[in-house]
Amino acid sequence: MALFTTLYSGSSGNCALVRHGSKYLLVDMGKSCRTTLTALRKLGLAIADCEGILITHEHSDHVSGLDTFLKHYTVPVYGCAATLEMLESRGTLPPAIEAIAIDGRTEEIGSFVVTSFPTSHDVPCCGYRIRTPDERTMAIATDLGVLTPVVQQHLAGCDLVALEANYDRFSLQGGPYPYYLKVRIASDRGHLDNRACAAELLDLIQDGCKKFALCHLSQTNNTPELALTTVYNVLLAAGIEPGRDVLIQAQSRNEISPYIEF
């Protein structure tokens, strides 16, 4: 049975988990090592069963717990070459840790098969398409200002897609952020807003995907209710009923979200 969850997800920190049986992969570790370990213990998961950590990019809300974790646990780390080089220069990756660049290619990681793909952000950044031992497939893409054809290609045909719904455009425009930050977030190298996320989900549903996780919601410029309402309105207008035809879950900022089986 293939399972997806997030240990925490939002602008304050991100860590996703893909599981098959007792084996699992982590995607990012953007809060403290203690927070991450506590969440894994709550799920009954052993560090020895973690087959790899996939890093999307170098920003602190995706890697801030990694250095302490890797001082105590020898788990291989995967990411694009530029990200791994930056982490090495910061001393985040100890010499004993195997760091493997998988820019745009497919790698067998334990019992999983993982393909990375580039996303449009203001630093080198990637998403991941993951196939489990029982031939189930999911993809995760956060921190992207625009859905490029490459991203759409890797999201297509999945059993589950975890996609960023970072901000509501009206909340961002009328919110407290300085102008330069609003421009950065809304740019093609920033983040994905609720309506763009909803439009992509509609395309993916029409392509056959039925299960979705909304990730990386902004604490200032979004809420789970606002993200879900935006998505629901787009789908209902197309004759698709969330909860009956498809499963859509907004991931929790500070807590483990319910597992989604895919």
Structure summarized in a few sentences:
Residues 12-180 form the Metallo-beta-lactamase domain. By secondary structure, the chain is an alpha/beta fold.
Features:
7-stranded mixed beta sheet; Metallo-beta-lactamase, Chain A; alpha/beta; 30% helix; 262 residues; 14 strands; 26% strand
Describe the protein's architecture and organization.
The chain has 262 residues and is an alpha/beta fold. It has one domain (2-261): Metallo-beta-lactamase, Chain A (4-Layer Sandwich), CATH 3.60.15.10. The protein has helices at 33-42, 60-63, 66-72, 81-90, 149-155, 169-174, 179-186, 194-206, 224-237; strands spanning 2-8, 15-20, 23-27, 50-54, 77-79, 99-101, 106-109, 112-118, 126-131, 137-141, 160-164, 211-215, 247-250, 260-261. The strands form 2 sheets. The chain has a 7-stranded mixed beta sheet. Helix 8 (194-206) crosses helix 9 (224-237). The model has no long low-confidence stretch (mean pLDDT 98).
What percent strand?
25-35%
Q: Which strand order does the major sheet show? A: 6-5-4-3-2-1-14
CATH class category name: Alpha Beta
Strand segment count = 14
The description of the largest β-sheet is:
7 strands, mixed
Radius of gyration: 17 Å
What's the overall average pLDDT, rounded? 98
CATH architecture assignment: 4-Layer Sandwich
Q: What's the number of domains?
A: 1
The helix/strand class is alpha/beta
Terminal CA distance reads 8 Å
Bin the helical content. Answer: 25-40%
One letter per element, helices H and strands E, the order comes to: EEEHEHHEHEEEEEHEHHHEHEE
Any low-confidence stretches, pLDDT <50, length ≥5? none
What is the 3D shape?
globular
CATH superfamily: Ribonuclease Z/Hydroxyacylglutathione hydrolase-like
